[in-house]
Design brief:
By secondary structure, this protein is an alpha+beta fold. It is built from 8 helices and 11 strands. Helix 4 links the parallel strand 3 and strand 4. The protein is globular, with a radius of gyration of 19 Å.
Length: about 270
């Protein structure tokens, strides 16, 4: 197994970065705050994020940040470094939670911080790596070896699920950057690579009287007991259990089987 320094260098190479650090953090924003990454004039953005899976024009945001004397910092967790290259689009720093890279096998969430240049402010190093547990390093090591093939499957399966959901009459909304109806579709074709990410949003009409939490509980294959980033497709109540938006993170399992499970529950909800 490679050492932590070697794994960080390997990740940096995959992310088109000059350097990378691994830190333990509950989420990317926690890593940004803990490492004091965001300074005055900086812009922090998700490569894919927010309600409806928005895809911002990262080149434009990078230019805007430079004009303000700052830098663009991007959370690339959803598309991963495989599906988006923020540093090549002008970002100074790109972060990614490594759940999917490690195939859901981490004991604690690890965030990778990659940058186009060594991170420093006023000549002082701003970020240092945490000492990552051997088991987590082993999961990252093994995961990086198979990640491109696995991630391509996540992306392809998400597209299949999005196309199925887009054909289901009665849903309030289906959002996926790969659909021509998505407001950011044209931008997504220039920002994302290898597809349009592993996530799909859809919203249940309030007239059905079924919340996202209730819908997810009715799905036999909701993946809620499975690890994030692992084999199984997982359903998430995007706006909370009482809301109506469901986010699907496509897994490596058969999307046709997942679509059949969703279809059965959608049809039962639609006639309530």
């Amino acid at each position: 197994m490679l050492s932590q320094l070697e794994l960080e260098a390997r990740y940096a190479d995959a992310a088109s970065a000059a350097t990378a650090h691994f830190v333990y953090a509950g989420h990317v924003n926690e890593a940004i705050e803990r490492c004091d990454l965001a300074q005055e004039g900086d812009i922090v953005a998700d490569a894919i994020g927010g309600a409806g899976l928005c895809v911002p024009n990262l080149r434009e945001l990078a230019s805007k940040a430079r004009d303000a004397g700052g830098r663009l910092i991007v959370d690339g967790t959803v598309p991963s470094h495989f599906g988006c290259r923020p540093l090549e689009l002008g970002a100074a720093v790109a972060l990614e939670a490594l759940d999917r890279v490690a195939a859901g096998r981490l004991s604690r969430k690890v965030v990778a911080i990659a940058s186009r240049a060594p991170l420093s402010f006023d000549g002082v190093d701003a970020v240092g790596s945490d000492v990552i547990d051997a088991a987590d390093l082993a999961a990252i090591d093994e995961g990086l070896r198979t990640f491109p093939d696995r991630m391509q499957c996540h992306v392809d399966h998400a597209r299949a699920l999005a196309e199925y959901l887009a054909c289901f009459e009665g849903l309030a909304c289906v959002s996926y950057p790969g659909l021509a109806t998505h407001p950011d579709h044209e931008v997504a074709t220039r920002v994302l690579v290898h597809g349009f990410g592993p996530a799909v949003d859809f919203e249940l009409p309030s007239s059905w009287g079924v919340s996202a939490g209730e819908f997810i509980e009715c799905c036999r294959l909701n993946g809620r007991t499975e690890p994030a980033g692992g084999y199984a497709t997982r359903l998430h109540a995007r706006d909370g259990a009482k809301g109506y938006a469901v986010r699907v993170f496509a897994g490596l399992d058969d999307p046709l089987v997942i679509a059949a499970d969703l279809d059965q529950v959608l049809r039962s909800c639609a006639v309530l």
